Amino acid sequence: MRKRTQGINVRVTAAEKCKIERSAAGCGLTVSEYLRRRALGYSPKFHPPPELFSALTYMDNLTDMLERLDPYLGGQYRLCAEEIRDSLLCGSQNSE
C-alpha cells in the first residue's frame, strides 16, 4: 500500500522546470523525489554519468604517455587534468 497520499501542485516557468529536471536527473532521482528531498532539507548528491569516468580514464592514459615522452610537460598536464577532475567531480555537487 502506498504511504504517500497527498499531492502538492507547484507552478514553475519553463526554465525552472528544465533546471529542476536536469538537477533531478543529475542526482539519479525522479523530479518528485528530488523536490521532496530538497523541501525536507536534504541535499541530494550529483551522480556523474559513466561517460565522465571513461573520459577521465582516457585523460589518465594520455597523461601517462605524455610523461614518458616529456616528463615536465606530462607533469604540467597531470596538474591540469587533476584540476579538471576536481572541478567535475567536486564542483558539480554544489550545482543543485
Provide a count of the helices: 4
Taking all Cα atoms into account, the compactness measure Rg is: 20 Å
* SSE string: HHHH
Beta strand count: 0
Instruction: Give the uncertain stretches in residue-range form.
Output: 92-96
The largest β sheet comes out as: none
**What is the CA-CA span between the terminal residues?**
32 Å
Portion of residues in helices? 55-70%
Coarse morphology: elongated
Mean pLDDT: 85
Could you please describe the fold and organization of this structure?
Helices cover 64% and strands 0% of the residues. It has helices at 14-26, 31-39, 50-69, 71-89. Helix 1 (14-26) packs across helix 2 and helix 3 (50-69) packs antiparallel against helix 4. The chain is elongated and about 65 Å long. The chain starts with 13 loop residues before the first helix and ends in a 7-residue tail after the last helix.
Secondary structure topology:
Elements: H1 14-26, H2 31-39, H3 50-69, H4 71-89
Helix pairs in contact: 1-2, 3-4
Short description:
The chain has helices at 14-26, 31-39, 50-69, 71-89. The chain has 96 residues and is mainly alpha-helical. The chain is elongated and about 65 Å long.
Notable traits:
single chain; mainly alpha; 96 residues
